[in-house]
Amino acid sequence: MSLAPAKRLAKSAALALATAPVLYPWLRRRALGGDKITILCYHTLGPDGDDMDAWTVLHQGEFRRQIALFRRDYDIVSLDQALDGPRSSRPQLVLTFDDGDIGLYTHLLPILREEGLPVTVYVATGQIADQRPYWFDRVMNALQGSGERQIDLSGAGLGRWTVGPDHGPGRCAAIGALLEALKTVDPDRREAMADRVIAMAAPVTPPRTPVGPMSLVQLQEFAAHPGVTIAAHSHCHNLLDQIPLAEAADSIALSRKLLQDWTGQEVRHFAYPNSNHNAVLRAEMARQGFASATVLDNALTPRDQDRFALSRLNVGRFGQINRLRLRMAGK
Ligand SMILES: [Zn+2]
User: Total structural domains in the chain?
Assistant: First the structure.
């Protein structure tokens, strides 16, 4: 046996041991230290069996299975209850969703109605107002067609990329890596660079369930569900530490104002797009009177953590549930 499969085997054996019924509760209790909140960050749900290769799209059946598993050990509570409400006898878990994708309306809302789950949804308002997906969703949609795609960005110093040919974790990881490369491009040039990628991906076969924004009417119906807390995620969904502070501040304030106007709900919470934040942005959150802001650092959340940098664990497609459970146990 070569080293790689042996390593993989040892890793999965360690994973199975750590998540076994005897050891796991002890690990989790120790990690939570009696005083930590677990905040999960999802993006959206898709139909079971859909072959959309996007980390952000979790099959709805997988989400249901996760919820059933979490409910054995956690009280699933709203963000407000976790931050300021009464403690539960069991550890508290908060479910959050970023961006405001249409899958929340199509696939999450029916589950909320059945299960009575509280969720916080951080909505980036630009895509709702314009009804145009952000650049990262347009790139993901463009790269879903069958067959291999060669994306040559060497002229821009970003290398050559091969996506596909088969659906699955490999294609999902390749698209994810390409998106990360695009995030390093100057914000003013990123849209144009994304359009170049989309042109190179031609001919584009639209995916069966493309990622993209809810309509305003869908958002309003979604927000009216009593379990839903609507929160802000900026208007532009730019990486806020890469643009001038005044521009970032306007984008933050505009998303909050639009969401309040659209839904009639008070908007008190924020998530930094792509988790990009710094001390100046955290101070801006306080200045604008937000109650909290979350990041995405794959960590548990101590109750005395900076309210404008609350930790979250990332959950997505092709992530293994045992790996997620291990991260929920601080590993
Ligand atoms: Zn986002």
Answer: 2
> Structural domain of residue 248, as residue ranges?
16-132+211-328
pLDDT digits (tens, 9 = 90+) for 190-244: 999 999 999 999 887 888 899 999 999 999 999 999 999 999 999 999 999 999 9
Same domain flag for 267 and 122: yes
Name residues with Cβ closer than 5 Å to ligand 1, which is an ion. Answer: 98-99, 273
Q: How far is the CA of 238 from the centre of ligand 1 (A)?
A: 9
Do residues 105 and 183 both lie within one domain?
A: no
Say whether pTM exceeds 0.85: yes
Pairing of strands 149-152, 160-163: antiparallel
Residues 78, 63, single domain; the answer is yes
Distance from the CA of 164 to the center of ligand 1, in angstroms? 25
